[in-house]
Amino acid sequence: MKKLSLILFAFITCLTCAQQIESEVKAEEPSNVNYTTEMVVSDLNIPWGMDFLPDGSILISEKTGELIHFKNGEKTTIEGMPDVYVRGQGGYMDVKLHPDYKNSGWIYFSYVSPEGEEPGGNTAIMRAKLNGNSLTDKAILYKASPNTKVGRHFGSRIEFDNDGFLYFSIGDRANRDVNPQDITRDCGKIYRLNDDGSVPKDNPFVGAENAKTAIFSYGHRNPQGMVKNPFTGAIWVNEHGPRGGDEINIIQKGKNFGWPIISYGINYDGTSFTDITEKEGMEQPLFYWVPSIAPSGMTIVSSDKYPDWKGNVLAGSLKFEYLERLVLENNKVIKREKLFEGIGRIRNVVQAPDGYIYVSVESHGIVKIVPKN
Amino acid sequence: MKKTYFLSIATCLAVTYISAQSLEESKKRGKEIYTDFCVTCHLPNGKGVEKTFPPLANSDYLMKNREASIRGIKYGQKGEIIVNGNTYNSTMAPMGLSDDEVADVMNYISNSWGNKNEKEVTEEEVAKIKKATN
């Protein structure tokens, strides 16, 4: 009898708990790392975004709502910040300079704004100029709606492509079955705008009925890493899955990336929300992580400072607290390595104009990756 | 005399019933908050992640440090803590929850996964707890 109930229990468990296909390529301990980290900016809380001014100083966004200018070893807090709604995973998020910052002076950032009628907030993109220690010429270029008090999935990475278009991500705001597949709604999308906030005429859903015309691709969950591939010019993202199913995607105009119709992930409690991992008309990820590493930040190494890593993708792991190095061959991941294990929750990784890679770590600061000796 | 006696028993029962009801309602709302703000790190079973995110399930820290736990949820948690014999040194960012939401989620986690706490955490109690000064 006991045996029978055990079998029955196992059977029911199998029925209710979805089986997952693990990533084919597993993350390994590195055999030899010729680089180490060096502290650049200490004592930061959640340094969500960073970018580098022409004089080599750094702009750092703290999730709690502060913009820090780090110059000559000193931190200055910038004044004139917008009203930031800090809640759950949201707050003051990414910061990114205009590709022609020297002439235009524009700084872009993403944050959760309470603007609007409903209570709560949603992701917004603002541009402004830095005048001394203050922000001036502030203008909201985009504000997702509706507001909600939900504390999850704000997306928020910002990137420019070679043509000067501005891309940004907004997560599904944990409204999985409503937002990501509907192009008449915000959230669960990658957006593309001109640098002044206007919608490019050739955006894919211009002319589609009731569509949010800033949308460039849809069916995303929560992309928190975004980088222009320095070799091809394409926009790459990494995004959080639920339990398993984090992804790397190459963004393409008008394409549906499938969330939540197709996914390699399952619910946090082990139950499943979909049985399929592929479907016609929906893009397959370039790579998926099972188990999840909780990726945040992403860069593709092109600098001569790291000959061993050239062309590799680097992504931060919030969950396992290491920097993941992914080696690709013909857009297929063939090797994964855990770098600097135990470093802390990595929020962002950026290759700076000086060619060095900077990594921001929560409750720690910003470190620079340098060759050993 | 007898009448007063019965009346006071009835009042007692009613008060107990009402406060139990209030705790039940708070736990229910707390579960929603937990699902939105906590579950990604502490997991649906409250077991957390070894070495990184401390367990809430059967947690001696949570049961013995009511005020510090409320403070951690309200203002964020930083620095070393020992939970069930293991040392954790991670950071939990402040979630931006209002006092009533902190109370609700406290009532939920302190009455789940082997934890038991019948003394309801109230909004007023949370409001009184100030940020640690150090």
Task: Report on the architecture of this protein.
By secondary structure, chain A is mostly beta strands. Chain A has one domain: Neuraminidase (6 Propeller). Chain A is built from two helices and 25 strands. In chain A, the strands form six sheets. Chain A has a five-stranded mixed β-sheet with strand order 1-22-21-20-19, with no helix packed on it. Chain A has a four-stranded antiparallel β-sheet with strand order 2-25-24-23, with no helix packed on it. Chain B has 134 residues and is mostly helical. Chain B has a single domain, classed as Cytochrome Bc1 Complex, Chain D, domain 2 (Orthogonal Bundle). Helices cover 54% and strands 7% of the residues of chain B. Chain B is built from six helices and four strands, in the order H-H-H-H-E-E-E-E-H-H. In chain B, the strands form two sheets. Chain B has a two-stranded antiparallel sheet with strand order 1-4. A two-stranded antiparallel sheet of chain B has the order 2-3. In chain B, a hairpin with a 2-residue loop joins strand 2 and strand 3. Chain B is elongated and about 60 Å long. The mean pLDDT of chain B is 90. The interface between A and B is medium-sized, with 22 and 16 residues.
Give a brief description.
With 373 residues, chain A is mainly β.
For the largest beta sheet of chain B, what order do the strands appear in spatially?
1-4
CATH superfamily of chain A: TolB, C-terminal domain
Work out the oligomeric state of the chains in this entry: heterodimer
Number of domains of chain B: 1
Question: What sequence of helices (H) and strands (E) makes up the elements of chain A?
Answer: HEEEEEEEHEEEEEEEEEEEEEEEEEE
> What is the CA-CA span between the terminal residues of chain B?
57 Å
| Topology order of chain B in helix (H) and strand (E) letters | HHHHEEEEHH
**Which class of chain A in CATH terms?**
Mainly Beta
Q: Give the CATH architecture of chain B.
A: Orthogonal Bundle
Strand content of chain B: 5-15%
Tell me roughly what share of residues is in helical segments of chain A. under 10%
Total number of domains of chain A: 1
Mean pLDDT of chain A: 95
The N- to C-terminal Cα distance of chain A equals: 67 Å
Which outline of chain A best applies?
Answer: globular
What is the CATH topology assignment of chain A? Neuraminidase
What is the count of DSSP helices of chain A, taking H or I runs of 4+ residues?
A: 2
